[in-house]
Amino acid sequence: MQGYIVFLVIFTAIYAVFGLGLNLQWGYTGLINFGHVAFMVLGAYTTVLLSLRGVPLIVATMVGAGVAALLGLLIGFATLRLRTDYLAIVTIGVSELLRLIALNEQWLTRGTFGIQRFPLPLANFIPTMSVRILMMAVLTLIVGMGYWRWWKWLRRQVKDIPSEALLKSAPTALGYVASLGILVFGIGAIAKHLKSSNAIPDWGLGLFLVAAFAIVIVSYHILTKRVSTKLSAWSSGLLLVCHFLLAALGLWIFGVSASAIYDYDQNPAKNGLMFVSVVTLALIFWGLERLVESPWGRILKAIREDEEVAKALGKNVFWYKLQSLMLGGAIAGIAGALYAWQLTTVFPKNFEPLVTFNAWTIVVLGGAGNNTGTLLGAAIFWAYEAITRFILEDIIPLNESQLNAFRIMVIGLLLMGLMVWRPQGILGKKEELTLGR
Amino acid sequence: MDAEFFQLLATGIAVGSIISLSAVGLTLTYGILRLANFAHGDLMTLGAYFALVFNLSGVNIWLSIGLGAGLTIVIALITEKLLWSPMRDRHATSTTLIIISIGLALFLRNGIILIWGAANQRYDLPVARALDIFGVKVPQNRLIVLILAILVIGGLHYLLQNTKIGKAMRAVADNVDLARISGINVEQVVIWTWIIAAGLTAIGGGMYGLITAVRPVMGWFLILPMFASVILGGIGNPYGAIAGAFVIGIAQEVSTYHNWVSPEYKLGVALLIMILVLLIRPQGIFRGTL
């Protein structure tokens, strides 16, 4: 369990870093980068190949990020002066070309065999008790800062609502969430029983699942409508309850991660990587938050909303776009290094276009132009991965490759649904994004 | 200039004719509906798989491709009703539409894997001997593919130049508002655009399945050459797209002559041509509508 939580935390942190790079390019600047994985592939292979030749890991990672930024420069010079959709086509092509190069230039990348046994960060590091306590303190500081920001934000959301109304609606909301959870769990348990006992044919089980979830969704939709007219502070109560539940879950994950650091020598490579990736994510997040709130970030947003206005104000739009593309690419390059360390073997197959679209789902789901949203999106994405990989297998009447296809279909559907009904995602500001109005 | 060269040229013409069919569809939706449809390649795959279903249940291959095209048109019209038409009514930006099309592409491709599996499949074809044309071996399939492509393109030319709906399509591609003012039923033009785009693309998919294999990623891997042809020929210009497709198809194949470019990097040739066009003449070689 501890090992799996550590695995999930590492992947979530890597995808969050990767998504933050895309969020800078798409969310803040409006650049459609469909080849984000190209930057990752460069970062991963550069870091791994350099570190195999004895270059220190941190230098290798920095060079990897630099090479990824250079790719951004090249792509940018070719396409950033043109219409936005050309960038999408060219980036997707470049990412496929880089994957082909990784596949076929065996003298460099060993092709499909993949590169193995490269140095990992902190893998041979045996921390003393005091060092481990220091590492746990750093982790606590990062999580504590996160919770503090979260708390401040939550306070702002419910500031104007009288506390009696909140107290009245919160228990109802708790009941609502709990009953929904129990219902979904119950349907899952029944389906699991039906599947393992082979009581009904596959199509019957599929029909049962679709019907059961349709009924739950429709009835809770009606319930929500009725309750929200009766209780004044309903949505705020629901918000509060959901956030407290999520905060509790987050604290539990934090506890497991901290205890993993305490038992560092049980799996030094993974525990060390977890520490490195969480610290990297925190640093990049902090840096990006400072950047996007600076005048530089405001110019990027202006370019996203209306390029002509930014141009009329005398800003060099092309140059700012190029900077955004390069910086986002460098961040993806760092994510690539972390990704390689997590996989411990890099194959060209790890860098298919789907990785790019996973990052897109994360950014769109969390809310374009919102770094916190990207973190949330990455957490939801990996929760989805974990749940579907281990739970759906027992419930849905599909074999493994079908299940994999089904999961990606849901991601495609989610991407379409979000862009149609909620283009600002969970945390994005609708009034700030143009979104076609 | 030896036999190998002409062999590659023949292959390039066959590939070019397939790309041209789907690129015409892409350029029409791009130019008329202002939609850079990244799901276009997967529409092509869908056509190939529908044809496969008919073919494996005993229907003649050419009829199967036609029936598959019919079903693909139905799917395309469903996406139009559920997705594209509501989004156009909301004046969604082109970037929003592009992201939706990526979601649709993932959905369609993985739906195909879910239903038909990820393995390569083949049409049930009678074995035919390769024809020998001045020392160049041309499999009969490729020749038929080329002839069929010419026939379809000829039909498209007639439709665009001589029928009322074709003229209306060209008018809408030039300027939607002007077309609407002069009494053209834009909704009808949109429907016809989808019918032609999806039909041609599905036929292209079936023919691509003939000369290679039917697999779930076949169309997705062609999306780059398709976009390259569309940009090369000027967005919204069907004749440009056809010319661009033959240029891309032939360049891709002939570039491997004497290993100038190793065959794995054929895709890179399409990308290179596209980037060169973008750098030198971003509006395309012929006049586009965008």
What would your notes on this structure say?
The complex is a heterodimer of chains A (437) and B (290). Chain A has 437 residues and is mostly helical. Chain A has a single domain, classed as ABC transporter involved in vitamin B12 uptake, BtuC. Chain A is 79% helix and 0% strand. Chain A is built from 16 helices and no strands. Chain A is globular. The termini of chain A are far apart. The model of chain A has no long low-confidence stretch (mean pLDDT 86). Chain B is mostly helical. Chain B has a domain of 200 residues. The longest helix of chain B is centred in the N-terminal third of the chain and has 30 residues. Chain B is globular and about 60 Å long. The termini of chain B are far apart. Chains A and B meet through α4, α14 and α16 of A and α3, α4, α9 and α11 of B.
Query: Which chain pair has the greatest contact?
Result: A-B, 47 and 45 residues
Portion of residues in beta strands of chain A equals under 5%
Percentage of residues assigned to helices of chain B: over 70%
Calculate the mean pLDDT score of chain B and round it. 86
- Termini separation of chain B comes to 39 Å
Strand order, largest beta sheet of chain B: 1-2
Mean pLDDT of chain A: 86
What's the CATH C level of chain A? Mainly Alpha
**SSE pattern of chain A, N- to C-terminal:** HHHHHHHHHHHHHHHH
Q: What share of the residues of chain B does DSSP label as strand, in percent?
A: under 5%
Number of strands of chain A: 0
Instruction: Compute the number of helices of chain B.
Output: 11
Known CATH architecture of chain A: Orthogonal Bundle
Count of DSSP strands of chain B: 2
Basic shape of chain A = globular
